[in-house]
Design goal:
This protein is an alpha/beta fold. The chain has 13 helices and twelve strands. The chain has two domains: 171 residues, Glycogen Phosphorylase B (Rossmann fold, 3-Layer(aba) Sandwich); 158 residues, Rossmann fold, CATH 3.40.50.2000. Helix 6 links the parallel strand 7 and strand 8.
């Protein structure tokens, strides 16, 4: 399995969990570094070339049945994975991509001719693609009808440690994600300002990213600085504490991802969720049972949903129980069968 190692983001941990699940099912798995790299373009190019050589040598020395590549679907990833697919041709194994988020929406939309051409070239060189939502599967199948596209679920291990934190006197809304506009963080700030006009509450924003300055400015402009904590990127323990101290988790995302890890973490913590019914979220969560769904880019609807969750204790309790039960379905031993079926197809 080729995957980023030693970098921020969920992919290294997901690769380790998947490798463990596959090994538990009797599959021999070797993890090879692919992706990540230095801060400069030169360092990344040199790092990628070294990774290519190591992967190619490893495959030639002991050819596996399949090379599973943990990746995404944007310009940088497509170019990178084209180089890998070409480098390992003739190594005697199938190549399967697992896309942690994709620009499948671009494949049927006007324009983006170069990106579509590059994507088509990459798909012609691999034997299968794993995606995290049925929406992506339909889009890729329409784009390349001859391709093999399977829907899988990211493995997740429920944390048995339940932190005990001091509860706030007022309800706490938690947003935890990378700070990019497509995650809905600015809409969250606007919705929270509307919520504060109707009830006392606090908002914790955990994460960092390109939109951090815009988030801080929005908090000031909306006049809610006293009720918002911009926590930045939290280490695992502090993030667990943030989930434990919250009353509701919010992620009104319209980001081109499959299924956000933060949603699994919130479910594990037993939090009710307010989110958008996109991609894998729509596949796995039920409106009114696991989450309240709101349209993307709709702060008014978001504020109303947050108010409903925070003012209906019975609803919160039902969602909490449903989410703890649901996240158990993502255990590596349970999700690995879909991966095995896709990998068996490569061997046929």
């Amino acid at each position: 399995m080729a995957a980023p190692q030693g970098v921020h983001g969920p992919m290294p941990r997901l690769a380790e969990l998947l490798a463990g699940g596959l090994r538990g099912a009797g599959v021999a798995v070797t993890l090879l570094p692919w992706g990540g790299g230095g801060d400069s373009v030169g360092a990344r190019v040199l790092g990628r070339a070294g990774q290519l050589l190591r992967i190619r040598r490893a495959l030639r020395a002991s050819p596996p049945d399949a090379l599973l590549v943990q990746t995404s679907h944007d310009w940088a990833a497509v170019v990178r994975d084209l180089a890998l697919a070409l480098a390992v041709r003739g190594c005697g194994c199938g190549v399967v991509l697992q896309l942690h988020g994709s620009r499948a929406d671009r494949l049927a939309a006007p324009g983006s001719a170069a990106f579509k051409l590059a994507t088509s070239g990459l798909l012609s060189l691999v034997d299968g693609v794993l995606v995290l939502s049925s929406e992506e599967q339909r889009a890729f199948a329409a784009f390349r009808p001859s391709g093999r596209f399977h829907v899988v679920v990211n493995p997740f291990v429920d944390d048995d440690e339940r932190p005990t934190v001091e509860r706030s006197e007022v309800p706490v809304v938690l947003f935890a994600s990378r700070l990019v506009p497509e995650k809905g963080v600015l809409e969250t700030i606007e919705a929270f300002s509307l919520l504060r006009e109707r009830m006392a509450a606090r908002l914790v924003v955990a994460g960092d990213g390109p939109a951090a300055a815009d988030v801080a400015r929005a908090v000031r402009d909306r006049g809610v600085s006293g009720d918002v904590t911009l926590a930045g990127r939290l280490d695992p323990k502090r993030l667990r504490d943030a989930y434990a101290g919250a009353d509701v988790f919010v992620l009104p995302t319209y980001h081109p991802e499959g299924f956000p890890t933060a949603i699994s973490e919130a479910m594990s913590a037993g939090l009710p969720i307010v989110t958008s019914p996109v991609r894998g979220i729509a596949d796995h969560l039920v409106d009114g049972t696991n989450a309240l769904f709101v349209p993307p880019r709709s702060p008014v609807a978001l504020a109303r949903a947050l108010e409903r969750v925070l003012t209906e204790p019975a609803l919160r309790e039902r969602m909490s129980a449903a989410n703890r039960a649901k996240v158990a379905e993502f255990a590596p031993a349970r999700v690995v069968q879909a991966y095995l079926e896709a990998l068996r197809e490569v061997r046929r």
